[in-house]
Amino acid sequence: MSLVTDNQRAAFATLADLLIPAAEGMPSATQVALQGAPLERVIELRPDLRPAFFRALKAADTEDPKAALDSLALEDAEAFSTLGLVASAAYYMQPEVRRLIGYPGQENRLVEETYEPEYVTNGRLQQVIDRGPIYRPTPKRE
Question: Which helix H or strand E contains 115, and what residues bound it?
């Protein structure tokens, strides 16, 4: 069962292309079909975003999507921000986009048991330990 209607999907595609246009060799949001399975995946993974996301789509249901985005940014920053988060999350999940930016995704890297990070071997960590805790109280607001 889809969480997004066809009309909402179309509205999202229009807005996402305004937020993520094709530029400098990178595809636009709709060129990687963001409004399909990627949108569904983000909405499925982050149910906490749904109210603000759907509010953004409803507010942007006008004849001028650019003006709707501008208005949304001024009048409902949470919905505007959520729309951007959903679009960018879905965008960077796409294999084509990850390939173009040179990000292969998470990789399993084996680390030897005897491996010590550079900050341990070069003495920087010991300097912090030797210095001890540092704390400056913040001034009280009245």
Answer: none
End-to-end CA distance of the chain: 53
pTM of the entire predicted model: 0.74
* Digit-coded pLDDT (tens) for 96-139: 999 999 998 888 888 788 888 888 889 888 988 999 988 888 88
The H or E element that residue 142 is part of is: none
Contacts of 91 (CB under 8 A, 6+ apart): 16, 20, 29, 32, 34, 38, 97
Q: Judge whether 42 and 12 are in contact, CB under 8 Å.
A: no
Residues in the chain: 142
The token pair that represents 47 in the structure block: 């149910």
CB burial of 91-110 (b: ≥16 within 10 Å; e: otherwise) equals bebbeebeeeeeeeeeeeee
**Residue 17, SS3?**
helix
> For tokens 């003006």, what's the residue?
67
Distance of CA 32 to the CA centre of its chain: 16
Helices assigned H by DSSP within the chain: 6-19, 37-45, 50-59, 65-75, 77-92, 95-101, 118-121, 124-131
